[in-house]
Design goal:
The structure is a single chain. With 695 residues, the protein is an alpha+beta fold. It contains 19 helices and 25 strands. The strands form 2 sheets. The chain has a 23-stranded mixed sheet that branches. A two-stranded antiparallel sheet has the order 4-9. The longest helix has 29 residues, at 91-119. The protein is globular and about 95 Å long.
Length: 695
């Protein structure tokens, strides 16, 4: 086994320890591993169960991606710790621990498959609860274990009576998460969480004290409540809901408190019932409450559910805040159904007809410089600028319905019987339907069954149906019914006031114009696997460094630049090239991301666009972590804005700025005539392409 392989396996095992606190960090895992040796017997049992599960997973050929995070192996670790907490290490308990660890792994894989597919839920530490409870029930029949393997616990009394009872209770409960119910362990664990995530630490405090004070009020004794180490469940519930499975925010913090208060009932009932069988509550209240809340919130479509969970709540929040600004539109994307400049007459939830089940729709008209839609007195259809202008397909798909034989209304009249007028309904290949309505009498040139591409001529704008003046009505629906209930969508690749919008919804009364990808520019950003780019770094016209980037592909099909010390993911979507995310701390990949986070693949002189970047690109981890903690209370605090502009067909000027970080930097980017970026100029240095190797 080579050095890299050993390093990988060690990281995977150590990640199992940090996963107990919902984070993936092998360094934190190492510290937790060492602290557990405050009880060597328990630490070895935990490691034995973990190692057994890991070896069995390798035997079953589980892929690296499934094992590296520790997700599947932290439950076996917890089971091993629970055995080591009860029994001392001897041949009998080693056998018992090995089999229990393997059984927990199998159950974890099974539950994850069922929960993720059918319920859209995580498994949390449910396998640990099931297996450990089963073990504690079964050992009553194992006389040998009780005779030979019970042992007295060593108590660390260094910090006893140093802290007030309400602080001692917090630290002891924190330590109990890893079966070390003493102040020293809890102090270390809580300090580690504070180092890695201010948000998780805050939630641990919020959850513990809200739950413990509530329990104290219910029982009539705060002192007794603070002595109850099973209140570690409150810490886990608060951390899971407030910072992991929900986007950290005031709302998530409030939900976490409500969940903790609710769990006091579950905890009390669990302790009463389980005590009859001599079983501790373990994390059953945490699992019950957390899974219930996550399921209900997901069912209701709660907007702050974390769809992508990063290594810490801060990273999840940064990713969320960046993406809601970067990708403002929806997955159902349309091109504008016309050429030239048109005006948004009515948008989503418009003031006239876009209401209720039909609120997700857009109407477009053509206006003159005075904002009028017609010339003269506007008494005739021909007076209206939009009348009989070409209507183009906004999507690729199959035409499924056409109506073309309804007369255009004269001005002042509407057809109340045929509300939608002449229309075309297209079934988009992505699984939805697009209806374009109010077309002109017998102007439609496609028929049912025809395949259309983006920009295919459909017909002419008219005034048929319930239409007071010539306009284009467009909506997206999930059925092919005429005038079906609408669903959200957005438009891609359009210009407003010479600003490019990659995926957005133009406001009412704005003048918009579609822009289509330029093939030559598209080719310059079409990178192929194993393309290699050699760059040199210059400062004051002297070479100070060099680096190499190789195009590779991740398991999910996303391409990235690999520098050896970092990965910069990229891709093209609907006519825009994006750098998606950066992994690692490679400073040159960071500058590549900063200088050109996205570029429209269509040129227009002086065209400008705006993008937003992750905070981690612009400052150190400690400062960013603090800012993100504050941002969890107000999502508008953290913002890194990029503004780009075409100087000419091969040159781009970009500026990155953030007020809260006091960051402001300007970049000049030159596009290579064949492929990629030729040069990046900043205040610090110049990055220049030296050589391209094609594979």
């Amino acid at each position: 086994m080579d050095r890299e392989s050993v390093k990988y396996h060690l990281k995977s095992i150590l990640n199992s320890y940090s996963e107990i606190f919902f984070i993936e960090n092998y360094k934190i895992g190492l510290v937790l591993f060492l602290v557990l040796f405050l009880n060597p017997n328990m630490a070895v049992c935990g490691l034995t169960a973990l190692f057994s599960a890991y070896i069995f997973a390798k035997f079953l050929n589980m892929e690296k991606e499934f094992l590296s995070s520790g997700f599947y192996t932290y439950n076996p670790l917890l089971v091993g710790l629970s055995i080591g907490f009860l029994f001392k290490l001897d041949p009998l308990t080693i056998f018992f621990t090995v089999t229990s660890g393997i059984l927990t792994l199998v159950l974890s894989v099974m539950l994850h498959s069922i929960f993720s597919y059918y319920l859209k839920l995580p498994i949390l530490s449910l396998p640990f609860v099931i297996i450990s409870s089963t073990i504690y029930l079964s050992v009553s029949n194992y006389t040998n274990l009780f005779v030979n393997s019970l042992y007295p616990h060593f108590k660390i009394s260094i910090l006893e009576n140093v802290f007030p009872y309400w602080l001692e209770g917090y630290f002891k409960s924190f330590g109990t998460i890893l079966f070390l119910p003493d102040i020293t362990a809890g102090l270390i664990f809580s300090f580690l969480i504070l180092l890695i995530s201010r948000i998780l630490f805050f939630l641990s405090v919020l959850g513990y004290y809200s739950g413990t004070i509530a329990s104290g009020l219910l029982t009539g004794s705060l002192i007794q409540a603070f002595q109850d180490i099973s209140h570690f469940n409150f810490i886990l519930i608060s951390m899971a809901l407030g910072g992991i499975f929900l986007i950290p925010s005031v709302k998530s913090y409030f939900i976490s408190v409500v969940a903790v208060l609710s769990s006091t009932i579950i905890l009390s009932a669990t302790k009463t019932f389980w005590a009859f069988y001599g079983i501790p509550a373990f994390t059953l209240p945490f699992n019950t409450i957390s899974l219930t809340f996550i399921y209900v919130l997901g069912l209701l479509g709660f907007p702050l559910m974390a769809k992508i969970i990063r290594k810490t709540p801060e990273e999840t929040l940064d990713f969320y805040l960046t993406n809601i600004k970067r990708y403002r539109g929806y997955e159902r994307t349309l091109y504008l159904p016309f050429s030239g400049k048109w005006t948004v007459w009515q948008g989503f939830d418009g003031k006239w007809t876009h209401k209720g089940g039909w609120k997700y729709a857009y109407d477009f008209v053509i206006t003159d410089k005075d904002g009028r839609t017609f010339k003269g007195e506007g008494l005739n259809l021909d007076d209206y600028y939009a009348f009989r202008k070409p209507v183009l397909s906004p999507v690729r798909g199959r035409v499924v319905k056409v109506i073309s034989d309804l007369k255009d209304n004269q001005i002042g009249e509407v057809d109340k019987e045929n509300n939608w007028g002449n229309l075309v309904i297209i079934q988009d290949y992505r699984g939805f339907f697009v209806e374009i309505s109010h077309l002109s009498y017998k102007s439609i040139k496609v028929k049912e069954g025809d395949w259309v591409e983006i920009g295919t001529f459909l017909g002419l704008c008219g005034n048929s149906g319930y239409s007071p003046q010539p306009h284009i009505h467009i909506q997206v629906q999930l059925t092919d019914n005429i005038g079906g209930a609408t669903v959200p969508f957005s438009f891609v690749n359009f210009i407003k006031d010479n600003h490019f919008y990659s995926n957005d919804l133009p406001p009412e009364n704005s003048i918009v114009e579609p822009i289509f990808p330029d093939k030559s520019l598209e080719l310059k950003f079409s990178f192929v696997l194993d393309n290699r780019f050699e760059y040199i770094v210059l400062k004051d016209d002297e070479e100070i460094d060099k680096f190499e980037l190789t195009v590779k592909m991740s398991p999910d099909g996303t391409f990235y630049f690999d520098s050896g010390s970092g990965k910069l993911y990229f891709g093209k979507y609907e006519g825009t090239f994006y750098f998606y995310k950066l992994e690692g701390d490679d400073k040159y990949l960071k500058y590549l991301f900063l200088s050109l986070p996205k570029i429209p693949l269509a040129y227009r002189e002086g065209l400008e666009w705006v993008d937003y970047l992750p905070l981690k690109l612009t400052s150190n981890k400690i400062k960013i972590s603090s800012i993100l903690f504050l941002s969890s209370f107000n999502h508008n605090i953290a913002q890194v804005k990029y503004t780009g502009k075409f100087i000419d067909q091969k040159s781009i000027k970009g500026r990155v700025e953030s007020k809260i970080l006091n960051y402001n930097e300007e970049f000049f980017v030159e596009i290579d005539q064949f492929l990629g970026i030729k040069e990046i100029k900043s205040e610090n240095f110049i990055i220049r392409l030296n050589k391209i190797t094609y594979k």
